[in-house]
Design goal:
The chain is α+β, with helices and mostly antiparallel strands. The protein has a single domain, classed as 2-Layer Sandwich (Yope Regulator, Chain: A). It has helices at 8-17, 56-63, 93-107, 116-127; strands at 24-29, 32-37, 40-46, 49-53, 69-70, 82-84. A hairpin with a 2-residue loop joins strand 3 (40-46) and strand 4.
Length: 129
């Protein structure tokens, strides 16, 4: 099954709902886009679908809204903690921004996620001292 790719309109929409903050990194991920804070993804774009990472209580609240769904990049394999927004919210970006802000606030409390490459580099530096 081919992985969906975001079109330019979806990329522009995604960029418009992510807070402007120098600590936030938006980067490509498997042909799609993810937004990261301290190495932890808090929102993303998969094809034209916007998704967000939430703690359980907020995730359950969002899933009660018609059109929201567990984020499953592969059918039957949902990613824990991630929910897609209702498609109709594309016309109500303030709702998406509100939930993205909740996600960001939660992810800000998480420890920094260091990539394996960075860990290895830091380990080599430490060993050379």
């Amino acid at each position: 099954m081919p992985m969906p790719k975001p079109d330019e309109e979806s990329k522009a929409f995604f960029a418009s709902v992510i807070p402007i903050d120098p600590r936030i990194k938006i980067k490509p991920m498997f042909g799609n886009i993810g937004s990261f804070f301290n190495g932890n993804m808090f929102a993303g774009l998969f094809g034209s679908t916007v998704f967000v990472r939430l703690p359980e209580n907020n995730r359950l609240r969002l899933l009660e809204i018609e059109g929201a769904a567990e984020f499953s990049p592969m059918p039957g394999r949902p990613m824990k903690e991630y929910v897609t927004f209702p498609e109709k919210w594309r016309h109500e970006p303030e709702k998406i921004q509100e939930w993205i802000q909740r996600s960001l606030q939660w992810v800000e409390t998480m420890p920094e996620k260091v990539s394996a490459k960075k860990k290895k580099r830091e380990s080599l530096i430490e060993c050379s001292k």
